[in-house]
Amino acid sequence: MSRYGQYCPITRSLEILGDRWTLLVVRDLVLGADRFNELARGLPGMSRALLSKRLGQLERAGLLVHEDDRYRPTQACDELRPIIFGLAEWGARWAFGEPREDELDPTVLMWWIRAGIDPDVWGQRRTVLHVVLSEGRRTRFWFVVDRGDVSLCFTDPGYDVDVLVEAPLGVLYQVWEGLLDLRTAARDGLVRLSGRRDVLLVLPEALLFSPVAPLVRGVQAQALG
């Protein structure tokens, strides 16, 4: 933990939150990630040793409780939510644009999408979404939505595919983050959607998208207005 040697609530906050990766760990905690492997999957550029260290620092600072193999945010951590989303809105307004190559990790995006699929939209019937990317270290993924649960598969699960999604990785990231509208991207040929019509009709409803997507869309609307 860095110390600044100034008696000020801002510096005290930065002593807890200012180290590299810490705010991203907090971001994922307030968004519901509560197991070590889940946190690690969402932060692949962070070593597991450093993640363990940061979680220990946050626990000692009173921002989380570690029990039953879960990391549970405390009130102090929950109260950082408006700050995290405030940074998201500022970033959408002043620091966001086309994705950089080093920001495009297909596996991370698929884990995010998995967490952002509402399985209740399709009820009790099994629904399989197959995503094919035009580039990336891994280009094929399957989401199996079955009885209220969503599984991410890296090999063909052997079920009939209901919807095929084909897109460049960067485009799919921008759809997820709210920079591109899914229907508009499909209409313009940036994303190709094919499969069962009844599943396709409710696909935009089933995809909850990134938690910051509404902020990104809001900033875009203000810029256009």
From TrEMBL:
<dbReference type="Pfam" id="PF01638">
    <property type="entry name" value="HxlR"/>
</dbReference>
<keyword id="KW-0804">Transcription</keyword>
<dbReference type="InterPro" id="IPR036388">
    <property type="entry name" value="WH-like_DNA-bd_sf"/>
</dbReference>
<feature type="domain" description="HTH hxlR-type">
    <location>
        <begin position="8"/>
        <end position="99"/>
    </location>
</feature>
<protein>
    <submittedName>
        <fullName>Transcriptional regulator</fullName>
    </submittedName>
</protein>
<keyword id="KW-0238">DNA-binding</keyword>
<keyword id="KW-0805">Transcription regulation</keyword>
<dbReference type="InterPro" id="IPR002577">
    <property type="entry name" value="HTH_HxlR"/>
</dbReference>
<dbReference type="GO" id="GO:0003677">
    <property type="term" value="F:DNA binding"/>
</dbReference>
<dbReference type="InterPro" id="IPR011991">
    <property type="entry name" value="ArsR-like_HTH"/>
</dbReference>
<dbReference type="InterPro" id="IPR036527">
    <property type="entry name" value="SCP2_sterol-bd_dom_sf"/>
</dbReference>
<dbReference type="InterPro" id="IPR036390">
    <property type="entry name" value="WH_DNA-bd_sf"/>
</dbReference>
